[in-house]
Design brief:
about 290 residues, outer membrane lipoprotein receptor (LolB), chain A, 12-stranded mixed beta sheet, 12 strands, globular
Length: about 290
């Protein structure tokens, strides 16, 4: 259910013709446990019937040729009811229909990262307006508390009319995906998040929009690049591991355990060296 909720978050805000009035947002997100932090950066293009999410993801250990980060793009096309996962390193892409995405969500498979658009899901999440929020990047916001059995947190939402393309996408997505209009308590329609702080199980999640551009976006942005090959869907698994909550949490716990064991080993070695020195001093009498 948790992964299903997260996937529905992503699909909510993610329009096709030579050019459309749209929204371009750049944002940073973090997933952390203790001192272990995974950072992500995104640029998202949103129009009424499509979204393009450009991602810079932390590469899982031993992948991406030793690089710390890898790039990927997710294009969501409501008019075609598909998502294209584009992998520049392989000059290829995977295609998932909305039906396949729904099936995978039942199996707790997280196909997309938690993104700036994921605070407004109509799927069994309670919302409550706390107070008038502060201005973020010049846009007025309202602060909301949200929660369910798996997650809780706060989000700062704007209803500025300049984000109308994103709001229209919400309506179109709910229509295309046959999502009931009211499945959560206090669901704030016609708004988009600019900031979020949440706790998902043991994982702390943060999101901050860093820049917003309201401009016309060409249809080419929402197409698979020429020369890219259709790949086996399993190829996307390598990228999923970079942002899947379960995988990230597991790797963080493994890293913490490794650090504790290394620290204990170093302490034992130091204690051993100290004991040897004391023994020599005792034998030599000084």
């Amino acid at each position: 259910m948790k992964i299903k909720i997260l996937i529905s978050f992503f699909l909510l805000f993610t329009s096709i013709s030579p050019a459309f009035s749209g929204v371009i947002m750049r944002y940073i997100s973090k997933m952390s446990t203790g001192d272990n932090i995974n950072k992500f950066s995104f640029t998202q293009y949103i129009v009424p019937m499509a979204s393009r999410l450009e991602m810079k993801l932390p590469a899982a250990r031993g992948e991406s040729g030793g690089k710390k980060y890898r790039k990927a793009v997710i294009i969501t096309r409501l008019d075609k009811k598909v998502m294209w996962m584009i992998m520049p390193e392989q000059k290829g892409f995977c295609e998932f229909t909305f039906k396949e995405i729904g099936e995978r969500s039942k199996n707790e498979k997280m196909l997309v990262p938690i993104s700036a658009q994921q605070a407004l899901s109509p799927f069994k999440i309670n919302f409550k307006r706390i107070k008038k929020g502060r201005k973020i990047l010049g846009y007025k916001t309202e602060k909301y508390k949200f929660w369910n059995e798996k997650m809780s947190g706060y989000t700062w939402l704007t209803g500025d009319k300049r984000f109308s393309s994103a709001f229209k996408y919400t309506q179109n997505q709910m229509r295309v995906m046959n999502i009931p209009a009211a499945m959560s308590e206090g669901y704030p329609t016609g708004k988009i998040p600019l900031k979020m702080r949440a706790l998902i199980d043991e994982m702390k999640y943060e999101m901050d929009v860093k820049s917003v551009k309201i401009k016309r976006i060409t249809s080419a942005v929402f197409k698979v690049p020429e020369g890219y090959t259709l790949l086996n869907k399993n190829e996307w698994n390598k990228y999923q591991r970079s942002f899947d909550v379960k995988d990230v949490l597991m790797r963080m716990k493994s890293r913490i355990k490794e650090e504790v064991e290394n620290s204990a080993k170093e302490s034992a070695e130091e204690a051993g060296k100290s004991a040897v020195k004391k023994t020599f001093k005792s034998l030599l009498g000084f």
